[in-house]
Design a protein that fits this description.
The chain has about 260 residues and is an alpha/beta fold. It is built from 7 helices and 7 strands. Helix 1 packs across helix 7, helix 3 runs parallel beside helix 4 and helix 4 runs parallel beside helix 5. The structure holds nicotinamide-adenine-dinucleotide. The site of nicotinamide-adenine-dinucleotide has 29 residues, from helix 1 and helix 4.
């Protein structure tokens, strides 16, 4: 193995939900490793602003509006990608988390959560794999959650079910697409400090209680904690890894 296994020079990476807390850091990490970035999100203006920020660092990036629940929109995005912009790497990061107890959860919240987190990720991966196959392969990283592996908090049954589906989907996609050199892995983050977890970490006292109970490394995750893991799974550093779910959780799962 050379020392350049984590270099992504010459690759293109599509990141969905790119303007959120974890999407943004992953776009920067992949860009700094050498990939050109397609920053896709619901909000085109936010994607354009992220691309401007990437550009300020000299990173090559292009914005795209993508609602992952819109199957036709996914098709149109891929149909419109020119030569150098067909992704070698997909980070299926778009997600929603709407907390409702299992007694109170509504069909609307259930459907939206699964439309974004499962169906969206599934069909973006399908479109990416169809584009990657004739090009000799690619890497897909599905962002799951420790909630897909264990109960990670109150009022999370709908979200956790969706993320468990992402973990399993990753295994099936890895199994079906390995023969075409398309590697598919998942990352299961623990609690990371983004807009999505703001209500779970309302103040220092609650945060300290969560850390003391659950996190051996003694702190909540920061978005930057995903930089290394996503570059690892997107690069040749993980050349023989597929179907894996990498927990990035400060040790939460081993302390359950
Ligand atoms: N923050 C955490 O602690 C944590 C933990 C485990 C997993 N995750 C997962 O990481 C991913 C990113 O989460 P985050 O913390 O950055 O949240 P975030 O709310 O900051 O960002 C989510 C992003 O997804 C986008 N999005 C939502 N619906 C979309 C749709 N229909 N189409 C396209 N984009 C859409 C939003 O616009 C936003 O940019 C999610 O899949 C989330 O479930 C987060």
């Amino acid at each position: 193995m050379g020392s350049d296994v984590a270099v992504l020079d010459g690759s293109t990476a599509l990141v969905t939900g790119a303007t959120g807390g974890l999407g943004r850091i992953q776009a920067f990490a992949l860009g700094r490793a050498g990939a050109r970035i397609i920053a896709a999100d619901l909000d085109l203006a936010a994607a354009e602003s992220l691309v401007a920020d990437l550009g300020e660092e000299g990173l090559d990036a292009s914005p795209a509006r993508l609602d992952v629940t819109d199957a036709r929109g996914i098709e149109e995005l891929f149909a419109g990608l020119g030569g150098g912009w067909i992704p070698d790497i997909l980070v299926n990061n778009a997600g929603v988390s709407i907390r409702q107890s299992a007694l109170d959860a509504t069909p609307e919240v259930f459907d939206l959560t699964h439309a974004v987190n499962v169906r969206g990720a599934y069909f973006v991966a399908q479109a990416a794999a169809r584009a990657m196959r004739p090009r000799g392969g690619g890497r897909i990283v599905n962002i799951a959650s420790i909630g897909g592996l264990v109960v990670d908090g109150p009022q999370s049954s709908v979200y956790d079910a969706s993320k468990a589906a992402v973990v399993q989907m990753t295994k099936n996609q890895a199994s079906e697409w390995g023969r075409w050199n398309i590697r598919v892995n998942a990352i299961a983050p623990g609690y990371m400090r983004t807009a999505m977890t703001a209500d779970l970490l309302p103040d220092a006292a609650v945060e300290q209680r969560i850390v003391d109970q659950h996190i051996p490394l003694g702190r909540v995750g920061e978005p930057a904690d995903l930089a290394g893991p996503v570059v690892f799974l997107a690069s040749e550093a993980s050349a023989y890894v597929t179907g894996h779910c990498l927990t990035v959780d400060g040790g939460w799962l081993v302390a359950v």
